[in-house]
Amino acid sequence: MEKQTIKLGLLGFGTVGTGVVRIIQAHQEDLQKQTGLGIEITKILVQDAEKSRNIVAMEGKLTTNPADILEDPEIEVVVEVIGGIHPAKDFILGALERGKHVVTANKDLMALHGAEILKKAQEKGCDVFYEASVAGGIPILRALVEGFSSDRITKMMGIVNGTTNYILSKMSQEGAEYADVLKEAQALGYAEANPTSDVEGYDAARKMAILATLGFRVPMKLEDVDVKGISGVSKEDIAYGKQLGYEVKLLGLARRDAEAIEVSVQPTMIPKSHPLASVNGVFNAVYVHGEAVGETMFYGPGAGELPTATAVVSDLVTVVKNRKLGVNGRGMVAPYKEKILKDDSQKLSKYFLRIVVADKRGVLAQITQLLADKNISLEQVIQQPYNNDKEAEIIMITHLSSKSDMDGVLAYMEQMDIVTKVKSCYRVEGGEQK
Amino acid sequence: MEKQTIKLGLLGFGTVGTGVVRIIQAHQEDLQKQTGLGIEITKILVQDAEKSRNIVAMEGKLTTNPADILEDPEIEVVVEVIGGIHPAKDFILGALERGKHVVTANKDLMALHGAEILKKAQEKGCDVFYEASVAGGIPILRALVEGFSSDRITKMMGIVNGTTNYILSKMSQEGAEYADVLKEAQALGYAEANPTSDVEGYDAARKMAILATLGFRVPMKLEDVDVKGISGVSKEDIAYGKQLGYEVKLLGLARRDAEAIEVSVQPTMIPKSHPLASVNGVFNAVYVHGEAVGETMFYGPGAGELPTATAVVSDLVTVVKNRKLGVNGRGMVAPYKEKILKDDSQKLSKYFLRIVVADKRGVLAQITQLLADKNISLEQVIQQPYNNDKEAEIIMITHLSSKSDMDGVLAYMEQMDIVTKVKSCYRVEGGEQK
Q: Which part of the chain is the ACT domain (chains A, B) (predicted)?
């Protein structure tokens, strides 16, 4: 007789782990109807089995010994919600080695060691799903792999870090300074005590590496992503952006032109009319442009106990369905295209540039001549006095320019006597050919 | 030796059919890599085999005889892009009867006869997929069935008709009248010569019936959907809406409270801060609220040759993968919950109400007393002169009220001497408990 229940081991019992248990308990009947099998949480790996928890009925299932899960032949699926690389990676490889399917929410691990983990899964005929690793509650990985399977994705743009989006939204709405909003976000629990991974863009970069790998079917690595965070974004930048019709967002960009790819995470000026410009607070959104489908966008909560846990349990449902159908380990799309990265001369963007210059006759002419010499033409220019009588501020939006040309201009400007300071330089979304 | 190619018959060679052929031709290599099988279009059913077409390499494959496809034992998958009920329904049932899998873009058919078609598919172990039938380029059906499989969806709201959204967006942006914008939309090909199905909400109602069936796992029928179109929406309604912080959209609503369900399509005032309020032009968007995931939204093109064709081909990829895995006909979630429809006393909404009244002392008091007597309290009221000196216009936004109470008030008002005319009454989004 066929088994009526599939046994699950849960690695980690923090926020997401608790959410997973809650959802499985609350939706047992629905899950059973969808998959034809019950899901039983057999064991939960915790750091401290004595700690009091507000979920009941899990007594006797807690263990501090990973072998109780990894070496239990009855457990067919392991859900990893510990996070981080060690020991999560060893646990997952250990589970796969023993033929267990894996569902994980671990973006760090999948961004850094996804290839190794998927290879092991393929060898062992096991499923590995990780929908929760990118944009928690948004089923974006599924959409990329299945929904767009017949299209050719040319561009993905993501607001994939809730902390930085909360900070930038607040700065924009209240005209507040970065440092003040960061403190507030920390007090509210939207930013961590050490916010580096979020505010410097590393978290978003991991997610973009995962999105680019799946969307372009190319094995992207974390080090392929150009990263710049938001700690240098000032309230003046945001105010000038608004004046010119833009919002500043920490935007992940993955583009391909012909077969050459660029992936970056950087503060970006987005036209107010773009659907991404109105994604505010801790929400995430991923915009996908496919040759055939055109523009689409997926919007939702990027984190949180239940949204993330929902993504985990949806993956779990797929594993259980696959097991029932006897097709585990065959559903994944391994990257099969060669990775060709653009060099900087191929990365084309409009740029926002804000510089402080000596307030002398002919300065604007000198600056614009320099740009013209470097093949950069201007779409908008504002010049105005800066703080005192001796300096002026020039704000420019360029037409499409290559990153190498722009880097050359910035380096040259830093050396010019008339330039006091290059205050800021951001990519501006728009203007490229699709 | 396993077959290397799967043979496909295409029913219909109009806009979407042409797109399907284009995409299969352009992505043959990608499709092969994803599924391990080539896809060969063997025959195409057309009305006129002599008509000139701008797709080459299809000569000799055109037929005017459906039996050439339906009775060809080599053809394993039939793609139906004729549209309408007859003869599409007979073709699809005929294909299933002979064990062929079906992919269709036909919302009319799936909304009206989906249950019969899915039953036949189940009997025959065949796949039937219809992602393209709702919101063309947005993979929303997949998201509902798979992405949210572990969640409990409580509310879906959709801008699922591009024609009406184009008209309302234009009216809002330009302060234009309905009739003028409709004419312009017809000239541009965004509205049909006979626009009834779009502007009266029937097209959107079909899509909402499909969404509600999949999202709530309940067998919803088209006649379960309350429908009201946009032909009565005036530029004044839109202007007052804006003044009060709302945009008017033709909104599909599917809600469930406990197990009781309501599904409607009607002009609705949406707060400007809501992500649906900024979905403009022919774009579609579906907002989904799940108990665990919270708010999500899917945005994209709702129609068009390539977006719709992409959805068709993505379904085709799923059919081919399933066939390779030997699991066709087992992937569908048949509705398994009992259908419990709300009665009007259970349908709670805020309302926008615009009435013209005699401009006499005490009229506002009489109107507000009437509402109070019917359990309806007010959130905002504006009174102002109307056209001449003898009348006044009262614009109100109510707190939550039941549809039956509101219908009662409207009927009563029509009889009141002091009320010249009830100009408009729209549902206002917001204010309910989640």
A: 352-427
